[in-house]
Records
---
Amino acid sequence: MTQTALNTTLGTTAVAGDEPKPSATARAATTTTATSSPATAVRLQAWLRRLAQTALPPLLGLGLMLVLWEIIAQTGDGIPGPIPTWHAAVELFSDPFYRAGPNDQGIGWNVLASLQRVALGFGLAALVGIPLGFAIGRFSFLNRMVNPIISLLRPVSPLAWLPIGLLVFKSANPAAIWTIFICSIWPMVINTAVGVQRVPQDYMNVARVLNLSEWKIATRILLPAVLPYMVTGVRLAVGTAWLVIVAAEMLTGGVGIGFWVWDEWNNLNVAHIIIAIFVIGIVGLVLEWLLVRLASAVTFEDTKS
């Protein structure tokens, strides 16, 4: 072998025997991966822990309710279990807006009719109750004059007003709206009046110094301060209205979720009654959620320590 070939062979062997050293970029990437992997695992564990704390209790509660429901269905007479009720619900909601006559309509139309009555009665109660609450809270003489009337009428059951509505309006639909009105007005009147009475006296002193009119006092000072109390009254009023409309429609008839429940009872369709109970609860839950979001949006919370 020549000297040149020997040198070439020795050089190749030396190069092949050397171990390549990683670059600085590769070392940094390895270090970052080793560092971020435990952090990612910790974040994943924290997320799973929060998910278990928030989702697991409701799921367990629903599971317990289904188990109790199935036990009652097995031991009771004529009460369908969760699976037959689910099949009936799938069939029912396959066409919730059908019309087969004035008294034979889908559950969707009945829910919308009930919501329409609640909206009308509640809207009228808000138009009367909120200004009345402002006036009662603002003027002590008016407060002392109206307070005995409110204390007398507020504990009366809302359904006790239904015959008065039928007598006055001669029709079931206005009577139901009247019942919603009379049961919704008290929470708004009382909460608004309490909110006005709790406005700091310093605000009113400033308004007196600036010689503000009653309209400016109501819109510039009282309304921002009273808004959280007002929204609380609205939440209570809507919840009460949705509870009352079901019972009122059972007595007055026509189209509505309450009448639909009573009609299904006359048809001995217990599965549809159970479905209606869930529908009423879900609609009430959605209304409550919307008003809670509204309350959180208008309520000022001091975050300073």
---
Amino acid sequence: MSGQYDDIINMPHHVSESRAQMSRRSRAAQFAPFAALNGYEDAIGESARRTDCKAELCADDAAELNRKIQLIGARIASEPYCKITYFVPDKHKPGGTYITAAGNVRLIEEATRQLVFVGGLRIPVDDIVGIYL
């Protein structure tokens, strides 16, 4: 069976006399993926990142949180230790994430409605979903 390329199939590989051979690394770089859309992978990763919805507390849970905040306020002089779970809104998309922080509460700011920890962490009272004394 005779093919279209029979006249060149057995010819030796051409080696240029005027140009140096390209290194394997340089040859491989020619076939590296082409990034036509800069930032596309980051955008896909951002859209795939999950966020949680902020839970609305029922009246009983809200009353329990208020009771615990008052208890912390009554002990504020001793800087009481507690763990607080709170919601942090996401800056780039709807929703957010829940974080639990632990430490000693330095003060409760009535004007800004925040719990201030000894290290400087500020947690808005409205974002708190759990207090563990």
